[in-house]
Amino acid sequence: MEMQYRRLGTAGIKVSTLSYGSWLTFGTRQAVEQSIECMSAAYEAGVNFFDNAEVYAAGKSEEVMGEALRQLDWPRHSYMVSSKFFWGIHRDNPNAHFTLNRKYLLEAIEASLERLGLEYVDLIFCHRADPDTPIEETVWAMSDIIDRGQALYWGTSEWSAAEIRAAWDIAERHSLRKPVVEQPEYNLFHRERVEQEYARLYEDIGLGLTIWSPLASGLLTGKYRDGIPEGSRGEQVEWLREKLTDPGANAKVAEFMAIADDIGCTPAQLAIAWAASNPNVSTVLLGASRVEQVQENLAAMEVLAELTAERKERIEAVFG
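-> structure tokens emitted (320 positions)
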């Protein structure tokens, strides 16, 4: 099945149903050469959206992606790049980390563009909500970044429905650029926010979603049923370990793997296809450090085409 493209909510821009993210790979486990190979495999399969963030590997992820883009030399109209701001990389300054104040945002976009080697990014996200900065100040800053031509669209990541609606209302009241997209975690173990909390926002404000962690940090692949494998994300990220080794969760994964086996696909492909089957999801972010992983994950498009209502009911019986 060829790549499909979906509108980012009600925005005019279209993103590939599956996209490629750089968290925990670019600039840490992955050098420029590997990144070029993985990005090329994704691009050749129709992926047009590449996600990044200022905080990933303390800016090195953006540098690696920027160098990869320079060497690949794709036409700029053929791909989209994002970055996200909140955590900051200058932890010695109270105005430059864990914040969405105007000073930080206007300086952060400049630095990100320099690391990426781009004149603009297509999407910028407020990586988390900031309770210490008025939402109005953040909305004005994000809108100004777009008006300056440094980004084309903006959105949020892991904001509550109330915070997103407040930002949208402020933008509406002042005729500013509105947030058009949210980037939440979404997978079979983490569903409530996307399926319930945001439910009114899809129709009311046309919210799009670029969801992350469709594999629940690898849990849905089944590789953590016998502990934490060497070199895995569970080994890298301490706060994930308890979640990944939970006996009850892994019992559900075993049933899920049986369903994937019956279909004739990998559990990773089935988990990605399930996430993409939600009509409110604009794109599913994939993370991979090897070309083989990229290709396996992209094959989820074939599974998506075969994900019948009956098969989704079987999955629901396990996780519902």
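The two ends are 28 Å apart (CA to CA).
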